[in-house]
Every structure is written in structure tokens, then in C-alpha cells.
Amino acid sequence: xxxxxxxxxxxxxxxxxxxxxxxxxxxxxxxxxxxxxxxxxxxxxxxxxxxxxxxxxxxxxxxxxxxxxxxxxxxxxxxxxxxxxxxxxxxxxxxxxxxxxxxxxxxxxxxxxxxxxxxxxxxxxxxxxxxxxxxxxxxxxxxxxxxxxxxxxxxxxxxxxxxxxxxxxxxxx
Length: 173
What we know:
The protein is mostly helical and about 170 residues long. About 70% of the residues lie in helices and about 0% in strands. The chain has helices at about 5-10, 15-25, 30-45, 55-75, 95-115, 120-130, 135-140, 145-170. The N and C termini lie far apart (about 50 Å).
């Protein structure tokens, strides 16, 4: 195993860690604090880095646990994600303002649906669909089996799909 470098192996994870913390806490300031706490905790464990199978999974696990602890202390479930992922809306395919507004509304609806998933499903969606982690990596972070990750992801996606279609029918999107 290569020698782990804080600058080259851990610091580049800070944006992914931020997105995970933000998805769990739904608060930018809390997410920033959690990333800082995560990096400090990882740094303090630097003597044991050689014993860690996946430094990325280790960092995500710490971040996730800190974010969950924060949400347990503060009741923020009524807030929604702010514009952090608004750049994800692809307007390049259409110059039609109406279509752009519809797409933006759909993206906000999906984000809202993800925000209201149970914590485990929300975390798995974040790690797989937003961060692109493998099932095995997610299983390490979430302390689940690969099969449990797949089932949780499937159920989360099914819930989002069902509620999205219900909303589209209701709002006529």
C-alpha cells in the first residue's frame, strides 16, 4: 500500500465530505464545521493510517457520524437544501425558458424528496448517485453488507420515483 498523504489523499475529499455532510444536516455552516472536524479527527489518527484499508471510506464514516450527531442535537428537519446543487440543472439543451423552469422545478422536487428520505436511504443515495462511490465503499462507510446497500438504494430510488410521479400528476409537470 502506498504511503498516505494528507495533502494528496485526504484534502481532495473535502468537497465530497462537504456534500455528504450538507445532505445530512441540510445546512452549509454545519457542513463546513463537520468537514473541519472530520479532517482534524483524521489527522489525529495519522499514526494508524497504514492500518486503514480505505482512507476514503474512513473519512466518509467519520464525516457521516459527525453529521448524524449534529442532526440529533439540532432539530433542523424542516429546512431544505439551498442552492448548493442548483448548478446541477442542465439548461444547455434548451433555450426555451419555460422548459428551463420546468426542469429547475423538477430538480428542486427531487432534492426535496431526497431530503425527506430516511437517513440511511438519504446517505446511500448521496454516496452512490452524487459521489459515485461503489457498493463496497458505501458498505464500508455505512457498516452494511453490499446487498443491504443495494436494497436500501433500490428502495430509496423507488420511493423517490413514486413520489415524483405522484407530484407530477398532482402539479401537472
